[in-house]
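Feature request disguised as a bug report, sorry. It would help if multi-protein outputs had a clear separator. Right now it looks like this:
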Amino acid sequence: MRRYRTEIAIVAAGALLFLLLAYERTSIAERERPSVYSTYDTGRSGYRALYEVVRAAGVPATRFERDVTALEPSVKTLVIAGYENDPSAKPLDEHDAQTLRRFVLDGGRFVAIDAEFAGANDITPGIGTTYQHPGGSEAVPVSNGAFTAGVARLRGTIEWYFPFGKSHGTPLAANAKGIVAVWYRLGRGEVVAISAPELFGNAQLRNADNVRFAYNAIAGHGPVAFDEYVHGYDDNLTMWGVLPPAVHAAVWIAIAIVVIALIGANVPFAPPYFPEPGNERTSADYITAVAELMRRSRHRLPDSYELADARANFRERLTWRKEHP
């Protein structure tokens, strides 16, 4: 029984070590993941600073962490930033695109901050198509209005543009290569599309013009929601759901190892094995060995006084038993 307990302890220790290694591997992967356009991300490209600035300015902004179909009617401005490079992304589909279209048609403002817009195939309703032209680092306002008020120059990485003369809506910012931001109405609502998400990352918000442009696009149209569901955040997730796939696999493997060990320790699969008794000698073996030695030496016991006394004592005892039955 003690041996079985030792085996179980060894198996349990191995399973625990396996879990720790899986968790460590996951932690390393988390530390090495790229910076993404999420308001939770504090890296170079993250939008944590933008979110804090908007809230500090008094804008009623929240993080939205559910499917877009569950968007509350109180939300009047929805911000979705690009998630293509996010390893935990939950891409939007055609059904979500229809929901976003209804949101805009009913009077909402949709702020789409992404690089690659795909025209009619994009989730942004009524948007055009962008093309890539790397190397841009600045853009300037090209129209006067509420969205460009106080903005002189936008600075940051710009690689995708709406083409001149083909973009739908009013250009807001551009450079010699193309249009970086457009605005247009759709039904009772409006869409602001920006093709350079790096402009509003944590590293670029040191530029006051970038902050003003982002604020103008987001504020002034009621409560704001930053969609974090597309970046993998879900407020309906359980503790098990939060764990990455690597830890899920490690847990199931560890459970399987422990179950197999318990079965092996408690369920017999063959008759019990009884080892042969050890070579334990008794006094009879000793007497036999001595007798054999004496026989080989042809030696007889001497008729000593001790032997004569023993013989006399035996006779006396035998006689007493006969007289006293």
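(second protein starts here, but nothing in the output says so)
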Amino acid sequence: MSRSAVLAVALAAFLPGAAPAQSGNFELELNTAADVATEAGGAACRLTYVATNNTGIALERTSYEVAIFDAGGAVSNMLVLEFGALPLGRTRVVQFDLADLACADISRILVNNQNDCASEAGEHEVCLAALIASSRSQSIQFGL
């Protein structure tokens, strides 16, 4: 690459409206799963996720479409988990209650697709492309 081409690429990163560069990963960990009573008197499986944005992009909106597998391995539900804003280099804890579902009835949660991944500059593919999914749960697998 010529010296002028290298300079043009370097300057483009600082121009207004230039898309931010992806530089790292997006870590999403299923940290805990616990059965809880809801305010309405029912039961739910509360999933606690730890999300860390190391992508190089401050995200204003993030959400994933996930598939829930039952104890027998069949898909029992599809839903969207909305994580909201995930600032650059920050770790955030987010909880979701799956109503009328016991944690023991979930064997696996699969990230099926990125539903929303946006920064001030617009939509990105980084939320799925750079995703590292893991689970601390002994009974529920979580991943791609």
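Even a blank line would do. Unrelated, but nice: The two ends are 37 Å apart (CA to CA).
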